[in-house]
Design goal:
Layout lengths: L4 E7 L4 H12 L6 E7 L3 H8 L5 E6 L5 H11 L4 E4 L5 E2 L3 H11 L5 E8 L4 E2 L13 H4 L7 E4 L24 H11 L4 E10 L5 H4 L2 H5 L1 H8 L2 H15 L6 H14 L4
Parallel strand pairs: 1-2, 1-4, 2-3, 6-9
Antiparallel strand pairs: 4-8, 5-9, 6-7, 6-8
Helix pairs in contact: 9-10, 9-11, 10-11
């Protein structure tokens, strides 16, 4: 059965070379039944000019507010595909990436969400540590380790109201990370199947740990854990997370104190 993939790409238009690389990788896909929904939050005219050279179906939506989760939610509203994924403007795909995804869903019709792998071909390393074995149901603990761009969603069996990001989390929001973890946890709570298949589908340069654990990002871990669990569990997880990442933090005690206090300031929706 033919299935269309909707690829949602939020962008500020500030990474011209990376965006061109992404579009070129989409041009080269073996599997052609997909649409790209570009949600630009700035530099709209530049995005329009770059899109003149593509050969794939696209819908360019301009918005005047910034926020990664916000832009993704806008893109979701316009998506027409039966499979949905979220791209960054600085990642790129292998030629057979979408074909691999389609083959997986055709062989696993009961799967609602499939998670794959990210690779950095420039440094020759995986984006993170991945399990070697396939998992038909990812445990909740391992959902914390998933990234947005490795997630593909088969939308047929999922209520549209569940395919939505919490706009308090993600770049440009109050808490600038963890939006994909909240997204997956909400699906898991609603008994949606989330699998893992150990194959690379997307490429992304791997950042240094320090660039990911800056102060504001770390402080947001407290509310993130509370959003997914509850206050006591959030305190425990924050403590364990601090111990694990201690050597990567500029001011671990200060960061921990601020994240701890933010747990009690944050109110779950």
């Amino acid at each position: 059965m033919k299935k269309m993939i909707s690829v949602i790409v939020p962008t500020l238009g500030t990474k011209p070379e990376e965006l061109k690389r992404l579009f070129e990788s989409l041009n080269n896909q073996v599997y052609k039944d997909f649409e790209v929904i570009i949600v630009s939050q700035d530099n709209h005219n530049y995005i329009t000019s770059v899109l003149k050279d593509v050969n794939f179906k696209y819908n360019h939506i301009e918005i005047d507010r910034k926020g990664l989760s916000l832009a993704r939610n806008v893109g979701i509203e316009h998506a027409k595909g039966s499979i949905l994924t979220f791209s960054d403007d600085d990642c790129w795909y292998n030629d057979d990436s979408f074909q691999l995804v389609i083959d997986y869903f055709n062989e696993n019709l009961e799967t609602d969400v499939a998670c794959f792998q990210i690779y950095d071909p420039i440094k020759g390393v995986y984006y993170k540590e991945y399990d070697e074995e396939e998992q038909k149901q990812v445990t909740t603990g391992k959902l914390l380790k998933k990234s947005s761009i490795e997630i593909f969603i088969q939308t047929a069996n999922i209520e549209r109201s569940l395919i939505q990001f919490d706009e308090k989390f993600g770049l440009g929001a109050i808490y600038p990370s963890g939006e994909e973890n909240v997204f997956l946890f909400d699906l898991a709570r609603n008994h949606k199947s989330i699998s893992y298949f150990p194959k690379v589908v997307v490429n992304h340069e791997k950042p240094e740990m320090q660039t990911r654990l800056y102060e504001k990002s770390f402080i947001g871990k407290g509310p993130l854990f509370k959003r997914m669990y509850n206050t006591p569990t959030a305190v425990v997880l924050l403590t364990l997370f601090t111990l694990k990442k201690y050597r990567h933090l500029d001011e671990p005690f200060s960061y921990y104190g601020k994240a701890f206090r933010e747990i009690f300031r944050y109110e779950k929706k």
